[in-house]
Amino acid sequence: MMKTYAVIGDPIDRSLSPNIHNAAFKELGLDCAYIAYRIPKGDLEDGIEGLKKIKISGFNVTIPHKVDIMKFLDKVDEDCSIIGAANTVSNNDGKLKGYNTDMDGFLEPIKRRNIVIKNLNALIIGSGGAARAIVAGLAKEGINTITIANRTKENAIALCEFAQKMGTNANSISLGEIDDHSSKCNLIVNATPIGLKNEPSPIKVETINQDTVVYDIVSMPMNTDLIQKSKKIGATVIYGYEMLLGQATRAFEIWHNTKAPYEAMKRAVLGGF
């Protein structure tokens, strides 16, 4: 019997997840289908009931439901409870279990390049759900220090406290202070949507150099202003699609208990551009 999977969120029309997972099913000859299912902000409870009715095998969760979904889960894994958000759910006979693959998804391309996190000082721009998962991942890997820059100072302070609870040196700054700090950091992460609409880079790239690792989690467009300028300088760049791919392969492995076909999934992502 065919198994069905989905991604839920709003907006959902530009999601690359159906391409990625359907390519993986095809590659491994699995009798499965993956769809995008729009659930507006206030309709999560009804949406989940609908998914249970059609006996959905599993689903991914994106904006704006990653935190609210926690209320409707029967069980969560450790990363989920640390981060306080879920982006992957499995359904076993109507029992929903939540996972958070943001952390592993974020770390995967860093590890793939053999970059040693322990030695790094990170600057993270943004303090939303993705930033929280990123902080948790870096803390778990023993990062040296984390500086958090955000428009709303209270949110940056809260995320800073979260990092400190995880045993990491952390401090918060305002967006106006970014350029003073970016030259002291050798890992710079844009964890905001800045770049989605081709906006200019959130930092002055003159403050970075060839030894800087620049990671932009915006996956579309692939070459954001920050990525383009960082490449020109000769910095190591990590694309948003790589995090997306890291998340997707981890979700695939949770659902199917088998190694994800990374190359086939990567081709599907890049084909989406």
Structural overview:
It is built from ten helices and twelve strands. It has two domains: 127 residues, Rossmann fold; 136 residues, 3-Layer(aba) Sandwich (Rossmann fold), CATH 3.40.50. It is globular, with a radius of gyration of 18 Å. The protein is α/β, with parallel strands linked by helices and 273 residues long. The two termini are 32 Å apart. The model has no long low-confidence stretch (mean pLDDT 94). The strands form two sheets. It has a six-stranded mixed beta sheet. The protein has a six-stranded parallel beta sheet with strand order 9-8-7-10-11-12, with helices on both faces.
Name some characteristics of this structure:
273 residues, alpha/beta, Rossmann fold, 2 domains, six-stranded mixed β-sheet, six-stranded parallel β-sheet, 10 helices, globular
Strand line-up in the sheet with most strands = 2-1-3-5-6-4
H-E string: EHEHEEHEEHEHEHEHEEHEHH
What would you say the CATH architecture of the largest domain is? 3-Layer(aba) Sandwich
List how many beta strands DSSP finds: 12
Q: What would you report as the Rg, rounded to the nearest angstrom?
A: 18 Å
Helix proportion range: 25-40%
CATH class value of the largest domain = Alpha Beta
General shape? globular
How far the N terminus sits from the C terminus, by CA atoms, comes to: 32 Å
